[in-house]
Amino acid sequence: MASPSSSASIILPVFTKFSCLPVEIRCQIWAFAAPSRPRVIQIAYNPEAEEWRSYPDACGGLPKIIPVCREARQEALKPYTRMLETWVDLEEDTIFISDPVFTLRKPRSVFMDSDYVGRIKRVALTNDVYMGLKQVHELFPSLLDGPGAVLRKMGGLSHLSLVLMEDGGDYYDESDWEEIDFDGQFPLTPSGEPNEVMDRLDAEDDEEDEDDQDDEGTTWISGDVPGRGASEDLEEEEVWLSYQEEEAMGRISKGYFRHVGDIHFESAKHSQDHWDSWYSYFEQVEVDFAEQQTAAPQWRQPMVSIVEVKYGLNYIGRASALDWTQPGTEENAAPGESGDSAGDP
Hints:
Layout: H1 4-8, H2 23-32, E1 40-46, E2 51-54, H3 70-76, E3 80-83, E4 86-89, E5 94-97, H4 105-112, E6 122-126, H5 127-139, H6 147-152, E7 159-163, H7 196-211, H8 230-252, E8 263-267, H9 278-295, E9 303-311
Parallel strand pairs: 1-5, 5-6, 6-7, 7-9
Antiparallel strand pairs: 1-2, 3-4, 8-9
InterPro entries: 2EXR
Protein name: 2EXR domain-containing protein
Organism: Marssonina brunnea f. sp. multigermtubi (strain MB_m1) (Marssonina leaf spot fungus)
C-alpha cells in the first residue's frame, strides 16, 4: 500500500523536446495556448500629461503565456496593438469611455486627433457621456459636435455600445450651464464676483460702444452695429464656452463614478433593471445617426447595442451576450411590440 506522502505527490510528464520542434509547430502550440477573449478597456483622461490612458485595474484578460518566453509573447501578442498604455485587440476589444471630460473639447480633441482613433472598431460610451455630448451641442451648435458627428468621425467604428449606468450623476444637466446668458451677461464665478475674463470683455465692450456712435451721436445696439456679424457673436460664444469648460474640468477632476476592475457588458434589453427603458436610448441613437446619414450619405453606421455593466471578464469561448442592431432597420422592436415582450424581459 502506498503511503499518503507518496500518493499525494503526482509527477506530471515533462516534454523535453519542445525546443526541437519546428518553429511553425511551436507557434501553433503557443497560439492554441493563447485564445483571445473580448475585453472592455476603460480609459480616462490625464490632464497633466494631456493624454488618454487605460486604467491599470481594467486591463486584465491578456493571454497567460505572455511572460513565459519571447517566442510565446510574440505569438500571444500578434492580435494586439500597443496603445493607451496597454495592449488592445482592435478586432475584439471595446474602448470604454466613461470619463465625462470627453464632453469637453480639449480632452476630446486629444482622443479624436490621436493616431489610433481611426483604427478603433468598438467603442462604448456611458449614457451620461452620450447625453452630455448632445446637451452641450444643443447649447453651442456652432462650436461643438453632437454625439452622432463625433462617432461618425471615428472612421473605423463598426460597433457602438451605449452603457446604461445605475449610479453616478448627470454632470451635464442644465444646471451646469444655467449661468450662460446670451443676452450679453457673462457667467460669474461661484462667488458672484467678475473674473478676469469678464473684466477684459467689459472693457472691450466699452470701447466698442464708443466706436459704435455715429457722427450724429446715435448709439447702435448689439447686432445692429455696422460691420458686426456672426463672427463676433461666435467669438463671444467661444469665450463663454471656454470659461464654462474650464469650470467643468475643475468639477469633473474631483472624481466621477466608474466600475473598478475588469468588467464585461451584457444586453440591457433583457435586464431586469433596464428592459423597459433601453429602447428610448436606442431611439435617440437612431435619430442622431439619421441626421449624420443625411449630412454624410456615404457614412456606414455602426451596429448598436444598449448594454449594462457586469463585473469580471468575458469567459473564453463564450458567445456574445449582446444584441447588435443596425439603426434604421425594421427588426427593431420596442418593449411590448413584436420581437420583444414587456411581460417577459
